[in-house]
Every structure is written in C-alpha cells, then in structure tokens.
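Handout, page 2. Input:
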Amino acid sequence: MSNPDIIYTKVDEAPELASASFLPIIQKFAAAAGVTVGTKDISLAGRIIATFPEALTAEQRIDDDLAELGRLVKTPEANVVKLPNISASVPQLVAAIEELQSQGYALPDYPEDPQTDEEKAVRAKYDGIKGSAVNPVLREGNSDRRAAKAVKSYAQNNPHRMGEWTADSKTRVASMDGNDFRSNEVSTTLAADTVAKIVLETVDGETVLKDGLSFPAGTVVDATFMSAAALDDFLEAEIAKTKKERILFSLHMKATMMKVSDPIIFGHAVKAFLKPVFDKFGAEMNALGVNPNQGLGAVLEKVEGNAEIIAAIDASMADQPPMYMVDSDHGITNLHVPSDVIIDASMPALIRAGGKGWAPDGKEADAVCVIPDNSYAPVYDETIKFFKANGKLNPATAGTVQNIGLMAQKAEEYGSHPTTFEIAETGTVKMILDDGTVLHNHDVQAGDIWRSASARKAAIEDWVNLAISRQKAEGCEAVFWLDETRAHDAELITYVTPILEAAGVSDKFQIMAPREATRAALETITAGKNHIAITGNVLRDYLTDLFPILELATSAKMLSIVKLMQGGGLFETGAGGSAPKHVQQVQAENHLRWDSLGEFTALGESFQFLAENRSNAKAKILGEAVDAATQGILDNNRSPSRKVGEPDNRDSHYWFARYWAEALAAQSDDADLAAHFAPIAKALADGETAIVAELAAAQGTPADLGGYYKTDPAKTAAVMRPSATLNAIIG
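Output:
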C-alpha cells in the first residue's frame, strides 16, 4: 500500500502487541468508508535492519520507513498515527542487536570502543539509531497535548489513588548551583542565513568538532556546557548528604532522548557512587571494558568473576545511602540501566506516590531526587514544595493543564545531539561563522560536556500562533513558561511579545519562569480551573507526563496532536514508559494491561482530519463514531485490568469494535454505512459470551512472541487474536 490515507506506525513493546489486536479492526472499519490504513516500521529493530542492508540477505532487507515518513510529514498529505517507540539507550540497542543476530541477521556488533575506520563507521550508524532518532524526524510541527474531555470527565468521576503528602517529608530535589547547562548558557538570534562550524582550540592547535552547520535567518542559536569537575563535586556532596539524611538516593535523567549528554552524566553518577572502587581498580576495570555510562548493571557484567572487584563494589554499596530501586525483588537499582529511570515518568510517579520511592527492602521511603542540571529541575522542586504545604492533589475536583509545545524542526535541546561533545582536552570551544565571526565561545576542561541547540524562526512563530489559537478556543489561563534571566528564553521572549501585541491578545497571556509558572498551574488546577502551559521542547515532554499522571494516573491517555507546518497531521498516542513491564507480563502470564485509550483518541482525530482535508464525509462519520466508542469504553469501565485472569487489552478492543459498530449502525447521516455495520454490530453483540470466554481462556500461561525487539508476526497474532469468534467477524 504505497499511499494509504492513514499511516499507522509499527513500533515496539506493548504498543506494538496491542496493534496486532487493534489494527485489523481499524482496517476493517476504515475500508467500509473507502479509507486505506497502511503501516510504516519505526521500531528499534526495524531501524537497525534498515540501516545495514549490506549485511543482510535480500529477503531480510527492508525499506527505511523512518526516512520515508520524514519526507511525508513535510507534505500536506501526511496523516500519521504515531505510537510510542523505543528511544534506545546503549544497553537497549545492544540487546536488540544481539536478538536480531540470534534470529539470523548478520549485523555487526556495536563497537563500544571503535578503533578502526570500519568500526568507527559502524558506530556512527548505530549512534544514529539510538536516543531520539524518531521524534525529531517526524515532528515537523508543534505540539498540542491535552486530556480529551471524555477522559478528563472519567478521571474526575473515578478518581485514582494518590499518595499522602506530609509537611515533614524529607523528599527533595537536588541540582547544581552553578557551572551547569543552565548557568553557562549563551544565546543569540541570527540576523541572516548563516553557515557555522564548532571547533576546539587547545595549545596543540584546532580540532573541528562539527562543520557545515546551516541556519536560516531568525534562528535562535544557543551554546552551553556542564563542568565535569563541578558535576563530580555536586554528586559526591549529595551522596554524603543523603547518607546523613537516611533517605534514598535517586538520579533522574533522560538518557534516551538526550542520548549524548545524559549517558555521560549517568556515568559520572555511577562512578561517584562507587568512587572507592574506581579509585582503586579504575585501570583494571577499564581494561575489562567497563563503561560506567552504560550503568551499574553493565559494570557488574564486565567484572563478573573478579572476586576482588565484586567485593569492593559490595563494600562500597553497603557504605553508601540506600538506593531508589527499579525492582527491589531482583536488586535492580536506579543506577543499573540508564533507560530504566526516565525523568518525565519517574518524577511524576514519585510525586503521585506522596514523595515515596521503593527502597532495597521493598518498602517505600523518602528520597533525594538528583537532577544535576538546573534548567528544569525547579519545576519538580516547586511541585514537591507545593504538595508538602498543601497536601495531595484531588483528581475528582482538579482542573487540567494543557500544553502547547515548541518542538518543530528539531527545536531546542532535543535537536542538540549532533552538536554535543565530551571535551577531550582543556581548551576553548568556539562556534565560528563562515565570515570568521565567533558567535559563542566557552573555556572548557577535559571531560566537560559542551552542546549547542537551536530553534528556527518559522517553528517559533508557528508555536506562538498555535498558543493564540488554543487560548481562544479554551478561554482559560495561558502562560508562556519562559525565564527572562535565562539566555535562550530571553531570545524567545523577543519573538513572543510582538506576536501577541500584533494579534491584540497580550492581555490573554502571562510570561513566567518555570518555577513560578509551576506554582501558578498547581494553584489553578487545585481550584478546579484550567491552565495552558506554553513551553519549549523539553518542558513539553516533562509537563505532558507530570500533570496527566497527577490528573489521570497516566500520560498514555492524552490527546496529542501535532499540526504539521506544511498542513499535514501527526496524531500521537501517548507515552510508552511502562511498556517493558507490560511485555514481561505477557510473556509470563499472557495478560496485556496496556491501555489503548491513547490510540482510540488519536484515531478519532485522524479520521476527522482526513474528513476535513480530503472532503471525505464517511471519514467524518467514522471519526464521530470513534469518539462514541471511546466514551463507551470509559462509561462502561472496559479498560484493561492489571491482573491476570481479568479483562485485558484484547477485551478492550472487542468492546471498542462493538461500540464503534453500534454507533455506526445507529447514525442516520449515511444510510450505506448504517446498513453495512448493522450486521457487524449484531454479530459482535451476539458473540459476546463466546468472545469473552475465548479471550479469557488465553490467559494464565506463558506466551511465546518469538522475540522481544522483533517478535514473530504469526506467533504475535496468535497471542493477540485468540478469539476465533471475533476473528471470524473482523476477518
């Protein structure tokens, strides 16, 4: 299907398992309206396979679907439903490679320490896959994220459990007070189209770190660095302080999206926590291939069998404060795997739990939340202080925080990967324009982390205008979360203010630094009112997990619309941070607790977009019926349960199909559609007993998916479509 009306992305883990059950339903219903639904593979395994065609057989090779989608989203024809994909850390990437190799794919190993030109070329290809390889390619528009009205209403009528906050909680946020990315940032707006390079000048000469950078006029270009020495001093001090406080130590980073800088920072934390071990055995561990950036788990694997080092690690761990645990039953700590603790999921979960994290003994305890860079840490710090003073949020009465996020054209930090460097030796990093002008410069030491990021004029202007449109539609409090004392934000404000004035809406908006904006938003939703947070890219990511998890218990149910700048539409289905545990439960118990509500809401928007842009009246009716089916899922409590033996994701898809068919059969705008779906609705209703029984019978025993990163399609279909009765109706 070369040019389908709607593209539904093939991804990873739980969302992809859910697709095996749900996508056949979508395609069956869409076909009745003449709407085609195709797929494109942006999964981690798919991206790896597409990157190394020369290593594979003709049968194994696949097209580079991500590149094709990257071209499509720059056209008015784009209509993409994007599910959450893995933003791979190095351990995830290595695990995926090993699995594919075991399945017969002759892929090269990931070179941890490339020496030859060939190894360096392989490493460069793999580095293009890890981290946020997908989102910057597809997000050619800015973000409009909010809770759908039906979802918000359900959450208020069925409030989830919230942990209790007390004023004497010892939980706190710790961040550097200087020499971090926030304090060292410089920024400027380019007056003309510009070509630049980044160089490191040392006593031995000049090294070009990046050449051929091209920026159109009006681009905001930043540069900053984090001092490695200051980071180490901060971590050492916080570990000692946490030990005295007798609370848990935790580190909250985003080593997936920030795939260059954050794994390095993570490695510094591992070394700081095991400082006596690295001080004594550093050279020996280096010879064993130890890379602390890959986490404590990888360290333990590399030193396995070396009794002296293992004993030193055990002694060091015993002498340090207790660690926030990912899995206390299996001894998996916060520092084991960089991708296990992702700040935008981990911090909201801790806050929702009343500031508690899991201790090594399996009990809950207060924790220090270490967020080294101070750019956005104040958001979490202020949230914790607010709840200590005011108690937990009440989801039954809380208003909602919507978000308009600047993310188009690789805006801000998430576009910084090609221009982020761990400095090899002491010197000065300079960004030099093609006319010889030095745009930015920093004196740096060996080990410092230097980066540059940018935001383009067209993307910024589109973001501000999207905010104006959203505020007009909602009529509620709207705040630009910008700090006039931060270099980058000050440049953005010079765009925001005149656009608001020209539109005559300056009185409808406020501009606040993130800390003050956080308190304003919390006060607003506590009073039952609504707030629109208009933010940059990273804050968009953080807030669209933080507030939904507090309001709805999950961010997977958010309506996420990306209005592509060339007129197309990208409809995202929510976060996938808990997807790994979901897959593990399927493998052990054949129960998938993944909730497809995000897919339901995105699908409805996709059909409505198709109707508006292709003048397809039948697509409009399909979209309206999707909304009715989504409401039916919520009203009748048909969402998946967490426990084996109870209804799961597959059951919710049956009920969604039934409610969808019933809504289409009942509508009077299109007699042909009503006639087509009436027998389908009847068959789904008449088959209820058999279908529910067949779905229930599938649970309780281990499920063979044929893989984790690359599952076997036939085996996955057998697991996710176990009802012969339902399959006969859907086809």
